[in-house]
Design goal:
heterodimer; A: 165 residues; mainly alpha; Arp2/3 complex 21 kDa subunit ARPC3; 7 helices; globular; B: alpha+beta; 6-stranded antiparallel barrel; 3 helices
Chain lengths: 165, 268
């Protein structure tokens, strides 16, 4: 895993997310950062899954203009996902979609609860979290496969079919 | 010099990063804004490019009779200007009808200063609706000031750094603003999503009537239009009507804004 490329990938995803938020007016829009986090957690070794989860959470905070909640939420959920890697392998697109949906819903709700604790004016909107989770689950497997193809650039683990480990 | 060989275990790393996250969470937003503004400045060229492409794609070029028709944005701008003049006139009449017979000049926006700023980005997400502009504390901008675009109020300054500021748009769920109608019925308006605001008033207001930002001495000395009533129905509270208000201009198409400073310091 390479530091610079990881930072570059996360920044690009964050900027794309801002663009998506501007272009798509409805709640049914994917959360690219969640998809990236699931990919990085599932395809890196050692301490990298935890570092990636927190780093992507920090980028989500930059996009959301509220520092801290997403770092904590993504970090905790990403680390839990890293722990469950031994029992769940993300090779099947359906499993990828389900994982992205669950991660998006859990991390989104957790982050919103943290934000509402700090800013009492912000109400927790579960419906928008679920819509975003559904959109991410629909588009997630495609982006996941694109990221898998770019695993050489990112320095992440490549699929066993391509390079035996 | 020999390098320290410390092995960082996963639980230790997780704990440290979580600790860092909580420090970030508990740090005042005025401090952590630095990160956000830095990110927005870095992403500004790309975001501006997408905004210009978006506006180009939505521009209608054909205008067969230019002397009879104006563009939609020009129409909105002029209509808002007319509504502001109407509100100013009503305010003048109210003052003239007051008990005092003394000629009291209407304190409109003559003594106010406008700080013009360009829009860096408009962000809509599940946490709110904000706009980042390229003017900050160094230019005299401070929290709470009203921001105008196309002759209407679009929000108030929320966070300020030295060279940039973020404003909370009228549609932001955390937005609360004192508003009044043409007939002087007043209430507190809340943002309610991407293109709507809600306000509960004690009187029925016809659809299409304008809603104005209410006077706040020292901050806003004259009512300025915010939007138009799109729906008026009986609210959950008896005797109160719930109004849905549509903003007077499209926030996504705003390229530059004016920050209103009612009492500018002398010399500026």
């Amino acid at each position: 895993m390479r530091w610079t490329r990881l930072v570059l990938a996360i920044l690009m995803a964050a900027i794309l997310q801002v663009l998506l938020n501007n272009v798509l007016t409805f709640s049914f829009r994917p959360d690219l950062l969640v998809i990236l986090m699931v990919f990085l957690v599932a395809n890196t070794d050692g301490n990298w899954p935890i570092i990636s989860a927190f780093a992507v959470g920090f980028a989500a905070d930059l996009v959301a203009q509220s520092m801290g909640p997403h770092t904590i939420a993504f970090g905790v959920v990403g680390s839990l996902l890293a722990l469950s890697r031994r029992s769940v392998t993300l090779d099947n697109p359906v499993v990828v979609a389900l994982t992205i949906f669950v991660v998006c819903c859990v991390a989104g709700t957790f982050a919103q609860l943290l934000i509402s604790l700090r800013q009492h004016a912000v109400a927790v909107s579960y419906s928008s979290v679920i819509w975003m989770g559904l959109a991410s689950a629909v588009i997630g497997p495609y982006i996941y496969s694109i990221l898998s193809a770019a695993s050489g650039f990112l320095g992440t683990r490549q699929r066993p079919g391509r390079r035996g480990r | 010099m020999s390098r320290m060989n410390v092995r960082l275990t996963k639980p230790m790393l997780f704990t440290w990063l979580l600790f860092a996250g909580f420090i970030l969470y508990l740090t005042p937003q005025s401090v952590t804004n630095t990160f956000h503004f830095a990110f927005m400045r870095m992403a500004a060229p790309l975001l501006n490019f997408s905004r210009s492409v978006e506006s180009l794609s939505s521009t209608v070029v054909e205008n067969p009779e230019p002397e009879k028709f104006v563009s939609r944005s020009e129409y909105t701008r002029l209509e808002n200007a007319r509504e502001n003049l109407k509100a100013e006139l009503l305010e003048m009449r109210r003052r003239l009808d007051a008990v005092t017979k003394v000629k009291n000049r209407f304190p409109a926006l003559e003594g106010a200063a406008f700080i013009n700023a360009d829009v860096i980005a408009v962000t809509h997400n599940r946490l709110g609706h904000r706009m980042t502009i390229n003017r900050g504390r160094d230019d005299g901008i401070r929290e709470g000031l009203y921001v105008l675009a196309d002759n209407c109020v679009i929000g108030t300054i929320d966070q300020v750094s030295q060279a940039a500021a973020t404003l909370k748009l009228m549609t932001d769920p955390g937005m609360k603003m004192f508003v009044q109608t043409e007939k002087g019925v007043a209430g507190i308006m809340n943002g309610a999503g991407r293109d709507a605001c809600r306000v509960q008033l004690g009187a029925k207001v016809p659809v299409g009537q304008s809603v104005f930002a209410g006077k706040r001495p020292g901050v806003l000395d004259t009512p300025i239009v915010i939007g138009k009533v799109a729906e008026c129905r009986s609210g959950s509270v008896p005797l109160l009507y719930e109004l849905t208000v549509r903003p007077a201009c499209d926030y996504d198409k705003v390229d530059n804004v004016s920050v209103l400073v009612m009492n500018p310091p002398s010399g500026k």
